[in-house]
Amino acid sequence: MNIIINVKWDNEASVYIAICDELGLALESESYDDLIQRVKDAVPELLELNHIQGCTSMCFLTSERRVACA
Questions:
Q1: In whole angstroms, how far apart are CA 57 and each of 2, 7, 11, 19, 53?
Q2: Contacts of 14 (CB under 8 A, 6+ apart)
Q3: Is there a contact between 8 and 16 (Cβ–Cβ < 8 Å)?
Q4: pTM for the complete prediction?
């Protein structure tokens, strides 16, 4: 079983956001690397709390951050 974590950049708040509805995960951080580490730290506890077994990997689906310059 794979867990898919959606990671997006929020321009208004200037933070990266990680969401996984299956686990009830919603985290944010100003740094992408910090966010990924926070997710890795949180997922094992969320798996246990949600009684989910057999998770073999986490996949991060990241939407690309685009910056327009004029």
A1: 5, 16, 29, 16, 12
A2: 30
A3: yes
A4: 0.82
What is the Cα–Cα distance from 55 to 68, expressed in whole angstroms? 39
Joined tokens for residue 24: 């009830």
Give the bridge partners for 4, in sequence order.
59
For 2-62, give the CATH class. Answer: alpha beta
Residues belonging to the chain:
70
The answer to whether the beta carbons of residues 62 and 54 sit under 8 Å apart is no
List average pLDDT for each run of 10 residues in the chain, which is 70 residues long: 89 94 95 93 93 86 61
Give φ, ψ of 34 to 5 degrees: -65, -40
Q: Quote the pLDDT of residue 59.
A: 86
